[in-house]
Design a protein that fits this description.
The complex is a heterodimer of chains A (250) and B (257).
Chain A (H helix, E strand, L loop, with lengths): L14 E5 L6 H8 L11 E2 L2 E2 L5 H8 L2 E4 L11 H12 L4 H14 L15 H12 L6 E5 L7 H18 L2 E5 L3 H7 L2 E6 L2 E6 L1 H5 L4 H8 L15 H5 L6
Parallel strand pairs in A: 1-6, 1-7, 4-5, 5-6
Antiparallel strand pairs in A: 2-3, 7-8
Helix pairs in contact in A: 3-4, 3-5, 4-5, 6-7
Chain B lengths: L1 H38 L1 H11 L4 H23 L8 H39 L2 H7 L4 H39 L4 H11 L2 H27 L5 H30 L1
Helix pairs in contact in B: 1-6, 2-6, 3-4, 3-6, 4-6, 4-7, 4-8, 4-9, 6-8, 8-9
The chains are: A alpha/beta (250), B mainly alpha (257).
């Protein structure tokens, strides 16, 4: 069982951060919210609808109001940057080529990559790929934008750019943002509300400042990056000395 | 003993489950095929280019040499009965009815089938299919169906080209090297090869096209999304397609005889 008694609310128009140690199921939770996975028990309400009960057509209709930034960008490798961003428009709208070009260039300009429109995904750095993916995620003007580890593996400049973009998109477009991350410092600068997930449930919630000053050992360990605490650094293993001396299993 | 029975039961259960899922997958592809053919022909044409046009070189080179070898072997055997002039007939029947569709399907699995499996498997491993799902685009419809249809259309055309280049190879060897009379080579072929022989070849190549393309997209779509998983899926595509094609060839030949 990954989650047990997990209960959280994501408010419209806010940036909500989902944080937690590795392996706590943050990405799984995102996949449940977007129904890439179906829960065996419990319910997930999105815009007042139990998402597990939707048929495929209704689900796809709902997903048109979602934008999702995947951890690795997930750009379509056989399409150029321009075509990647244009992809949802070509699939779901009957806009003219000229209008699509206008919209795509506007979104690429917003992420600072208008000049990379003709490049292929393989030519992009990790940070650029994620910015293109962000442009694609917002090209349909979604109501809910979901970010899965948007800061992982980025250099400080790219990270700063993405952090500012997350905040700017949310404020300018009035969308609801859900950010999964364990980059405490970065996410704290943009999140309105944070949930710390551990052991399959919400261990703590509140504004980043509230979490930072919390007294709970788990929250302190996570927020301050301490090695010792309720979350063990070492995975379960036999006695170290015994294993090194060969008295344990091979 | 109890464990053995449990293992056998588990294997049978897993086989039935996978076979059922495979049939449902095939029905899904068929369900979306008309809409894609009519509504998005550009996607199918692109895949015909990828699976068909890009396989032309290997098909033509192999076809030429298979035809040449058949002519050499046929000539050597027929010469014992002073029937060298029938070499054209022997080669034509062998190519059109059997070797054309079968070898083309095997080459198709090796060249285009592996490309399809690995491409789809990698799209899955790099979250591209999940990204499509999240963009409310059905990946089965947008990615798998065009690739499946591209393979189904390409395979009979490739088999026909294989047979034609094979006949050309046989002509070069028999007429050019072994000095078989050119008139006898082609005339005997015209008199002996009937439309039903050609129909048998066409039928086989269509069936093999469906099977090879279906297995390639199935294996890619169900690949474990890791480097090792994609590699395994690619290998399975070739192995399972080769076995299926040879078994089906036997069954279809039995029906046509």
């Amino acid at each position: 069982m990954i989650f047990e008694g997990l209960n959280l609310t994501i408010k419209r128009g806010e940036i909500t951060a989902l944080m937690g140690p590795s392996g706590t199921g943050k990405t799984t939770l995102l996949r449940l919210i977007t129904r890439q996975l179906v829960p065996q028990q419990g319910t997930i309400w999105v815009n007042g609808v139990d998402i597990a009960t939707l048929d495929l057509a209704s689900l796809y209709q709902l997903r048109q109001r979602f934008g999702m930034l995947f951890q690795n960008g997930a750009l379509l490798t056989d399409l150029s940057v321009f075509e990647n961003v244009a992809f949802p428009l070509r699939e779901h709208t009957k806009l003219t080529g000229r209008l699509i070009r206008h919209v795509v260039l506007t979104k690429l300009h917003a992420v600072g990559l208008r000049g990379a429109a003709d490049m292929m995904p393989a030519q992009l750095s990790g940070g650029m790929a994620r910015r293109v993916a962000l442009a694609r995620a917002m090209v349909m003007d979604p109501e809910i934008l979901i970010y899965d580890e948007p800061f992982a593996g980025l250099d400080p400049i790219s990270m700063g750019v993405i952090v500012r973009l997350v905040r700017r998109m949310n404020d300018a477009l009035g969308i609801t943002s859900i950010v999964v991350s364990h980059d405490v410092a970065e996410i704290s600068t943009v999140a309105d509300r944070s949930y710390l997930i551990s052991g399959g449930k919400v261990a703590a919630s509140g504004s980043p400042d509230e979490l930072r000053t919390a007294t709970s050992e788990l929250v302190r360990q996570f927020m301050h990056g301490m090695a010792d605490g309720p979350v063990a650094f070492h995975f379960d293993a036999p006695d170290y000395a015994e294993q090194l001396l060969g008295r344990g299993t091979e | 003993m109890r464990e053995l029975i449990r293992d056998i039961y588990g294997t049978i259960f897993e086989f039935v489950r996978t076979f059922g899922a495979f049939q449902l997958f095939f029905l899904r592809l068929l369900r979306y095929s008309p809409k894609i053919l009519i509504g998005r022909p550009g996607l199918v044409i692109k895949q015909i280019y990828n699976t068909g046009a890009l396989s032309l070189v290997i098909i033509m080179v192999c076809g030429f040499f298979v035809g040449g070898v058949l002519a050499l072997q046929g000539y050597a055997s027929l010469a014992k009965f002073n029937a060298e002039d029938a070499v054209g007939t022997v080669v034509a029947l062998a190519l059109i009815k059997e070797l054309g569709p079968v070898i083309t399907a095997l080459l198709f699995a090796g060249r285009a089938g592996t490309a399809l499996s690995s491409e789809i498997g990698l799209m899955k491993a790099t979250d591209q299919l999940s990204a499509m799902e999240m963009m409310a685009v059905n990946p089965v419809r947008r990615v798998l169906v065009p690739r499946f249809l591209g393979g189904v259309v390409s395979m009979p055309l490739l088999a026909a080209i294989f047979s034609c280049t094979g006949l050309f190879g046989a002509h070069v060897v028999a007429v050019g090297l072994l000095e078989v009379d050119v008139g006898a080579f082609w005339q005997q072929m015209r008199l002996t090869v009937t439309m039903s022989d050609i129909n048998e070849g066409i039928f086989k190549s269509v069936v093999f096209g469906v099977v090879a393309s279906l297995l390639a997209v199935w294996e890619g779509y169900n690949a474990i999304p890791t480097a090792e998983g994609v590699g395994r899926a690619t290998t399975r595509t070739v192995v399972i397609t080769a076995i299926s094609v040879l078994i089906l060839d036997f069954m279809i030949t039995t029906v046509f005889l």
